[in-house]
Amino acid sequence: MNYGYSIIRGAVARGIVSYGYMPTIGIHHKSELNNYNLADDFIEPFRPIVDLWVKMNTQEEMEFDKYMRAELVNLLNVDVFIQEKLQSVNNSINIMIASYTTAINTNQEIFNK
Fold it and tell me: Is 61 helix (H, G, I), strand (E, B) or coil?
């Protein structure tokens, strides 16, 4: 599961940086030793996707091979519902970060009045 989480975490971190945020500054995750606090905050809704894939496609005694690694990377292309539409996990990450940006900007406008 950790490999799958790392794949999603990397995609989230790339999205965070592309929006100009620092992934080290989190909302709930605040460890000084963690360079991905904000990414770890945003990854939470996507963890069940990895959990479900691992549960349905592995057994305890199985070897973790290149096929499994490729399938876990491909989870970024799995469709999920977000804003009442089917979107890939990769697109939904960007939608989530855009929504976060809107929330921050809206709150800043409220506090600046």
Answer: coil
Whole-model pTM: value is 0.85
Q: What per-residue confidence (pLDDT) applies to 6?
A: 94
pLDDT, tens digit (0-9, with 9 covering 90-100), for 86-110: 999 999 999 999 999 998 888 765 5
37 touches 83 (CB < 8 A): no
- Long-range contact list for 56-63, CB < 8 A, 24+ apart? none
What's the alpha-carbon Rg for the chain, to the nearest Å?
A: 16
Tokens at 59, concatenated: 């057994």
Report the alpha-carbon distance of residue 15 to residue 83 in Å, rounded: 18
Task: Tell me the HSE value of 61 on the side-chain side, using a 13 A CA sphere.
Answer: 0
